[in-house]
């Protein structure tokens, strides 16, 4: 293999020395030191010279296979001074001549000028030949994604560009302009896991309910990380209907008949009886709320009992909860109203949600629906910013949960699933509650979860009203997490690009290192587009209600750790472009696509909460 580490002029004396070695060169008397040079430390470099037998003066009858001579060279020396060991103990000739029995000498014992010149020309031509890695990246693959190394003994070695190359300055994340937007507007802040060749990408699903903004968890799936299919909301806010049983479609009735979108009974239809019973379901164990959707035709008149609602445990054969509704409980005629009953679902028990009609009024039943948890729900305003992890056959999803009252401004909740589609909220939510003092006194959020060596690691952000920083809680089970005493583990850097926020993160392992991509921002600043109503009344940089993170500069940085506790920030941060007083290049997620290419999926700095990606590529000279 040609050696390209030195100038051509340095090779000429080496070739001459090889050609002038004393003694006939045969396989039996080649000095091992010529074939396998002794080690010269980290600075050692070797190069190969393959000399045809004719070029070293052997007769046709004595032609031997090409001889490879590896000569160690010190890469730190510009003027190369190499002493080649003599063959068969023959002394090195100081004046460049050899004895007559060398088989290489001319009439006077010196190498003929023509032969010497030929060797020099061949060496020069050899040096001008491109190395295998210079030819189509040695066949390794695209040069922006694969590193090719010429091996001293010939051939090449190939490897994919890695995060360690980025850390060493040999690689970078490049925005994938050709791919463009991924999915649809609203698909953003992903947390992904591959399962049987399908990427399950959970994301923030925003919507409006009762005139207020809500955030739940949606699911998108993809087999290539580029084309996504919508699977809808898979984890909704507290109080949302997770299991719905329509009365018109249910066969379990003793009185009445189908009417409109429900099942109704009129005075005179028969004796008092169950307007609906069943549906004989078994739900996940834990606290539940059942909502009954009912209407009556008249609200004036005697305050008679209209219906009795109850929850019946068919396995235990007992009523778990009940309530009698009178005419006074209804405030509008012919308008559905919602009435709730709470209960604790026992594991494996069969339940009925029953409506008993007292024959005192027209009554229509719409739906009976079940929500996980009980009011006041800890996640009735926010159940989003998902972080997913699959451990064996069970899926775990941690999420930021916030209620409608001040008791739950933002904490960490947990849900589990057997299939990645149907999620069951933990009965003891939240599993981590914000502290009333210190760096996380306002709220917690944007959780991410991983398991290593039997220990769960829950990373999250803490907010004190001014700064966002990253903390850690860990433990052998998710219902016994303990905060790390070094929190916050990844703090902000004053005056830097992440002086205001070190927030949502994604963690991946490569070799002995864990790498964390984290969103960062400058300090809060005037946000001309602030949605704060108090800012909209007086939109001015002098109005404190207009100062928020929407006016900051945002991007994504990198940190790494060997133990998930002690993190070092990458000196070249940030690794994505930086916005100009707007959100974007944030909420990044590591995703490795089926072609083994590593990407960062991030929210783009544009309206609509769009997701784009950047790819890890070799940094070009």
Description:
With 621 residues, this protein is mainly beta. Among the domains are: 8-129, no CATH class; 133-160, no CATH class; 243-372, Sandwich (Jelly Rolls), CATH 2.60.120.260. 7% of the residues lie in helices and 40% in strands. The protein is built from 5 helices and 37 strands. The strands form 10 sheets. Strands 10, 11, 12, 15, 18 and 20 form a 6-stranded antiparallel beta sheet that branches. A hairpin with a 4-residue loop joins strand 26 and strand 27. The relative contact order is 0.10. Mean pLDDT is 83; it is low at 1-112.
Secondary structure layout:
Layout: H1 8-19, H2 32-35, E1 44-51, E2 67-74, H3 113-127, E3 146-150, E4 156-160, H4 163-167, E5 171-175, E6 191-195, E7 198-209, E8 212-222, E9 229-235, E10 243-246, E11 257-259, E12 262-265, E13 273-276, E14 279-281, E15 286-296, E16 305-313, E17 318-326, E18 337-345, E19 351-357, E20 363-372, E21 382-391, E22 394-402, E23 411-417, E24 423-425, E25 443-452, E26 455-463, E27 468-475, E28 482-483, E29 501-510, E30 513-521, E31 525-526, H5 533-537, E32 547-548, E33 554-561, E34 568-569, E35 586-592, E36 598-603, E37 611-618
Antiparallel strand pairs: 1-2, 3-4, 5-37, 6-7, 7-8, 8-9, 10-20, 11-12, 12-20, 13-19, 14-19, 15-18, 15-20, 16-17, 16-19, 21-22, 22-23, 23-24, 25-26, 26-27, 27-28, 29-30, 30-33, 31-32, 33-34, 35-36, 36-37
Helix pairs in contact: 1-3
